[in-house]
Write a structure and sequence with these properties.
The chain has no helices and eight strands. The chain is mainly β. It has one domain: Immunoglobulin-like. The chain has a four-stranded antiparallel β-sheet with strand order 1-2-6-5, with no helix packed on it. Strands 4-3-7-8 form a four-stranded antiparallel β-sheet, with no helix packed on it. A hairpin with a 2-residue loop joins strand 3 and strand 4. InterPro entries: Ig-like_dom, Ig-like_dom_sf, Ig-like_fold, Ig/MHC_CS, Ig_I-set, Obscurin/Obscurin-like_Reg.
């Protein structure tokens, strides 16, 4: 299986409380497995507050809905042994 790498990493973002914010990370191969999103070192799941999806097979997105002050921190995207943070 090819080593999936990060082609385009996360970007730091400033957002107002109550707004939604989206993070994007592009990887080198479609259908990447072993992918994980974290906020402040806590693994995120796809639910009503966190929307995790893949666009065009390679662009992984995380949307945090109605962010609060408690959401301040580092967002991490990991694929295999590669990571990107914002």
């Amino acid at each position: 299986e090819p080593d999936v790498t990060i082609v385009s990493g996360l970007r730091d973002t400033v957002v107002s409380e109550g707004d939604d914010v989206t993070f994007r990370c592009q990887v080198s191969h479609e259908n990447a497995r072993d992918v994980e999103w974290k906020l402040q070192d806590v693994a995120l799941q796809n639910n009503e507050m966190n929307e995790i999806s893949v666009e065009k097979g390679k662009v992984h997105t995380l949307t945090l809905r109605k962010v609060t002050e408690q959401d301040v921190g580092t967002v991490t995207f990991r694929v295999g042994r590669h990571t990107s943070t914002a």
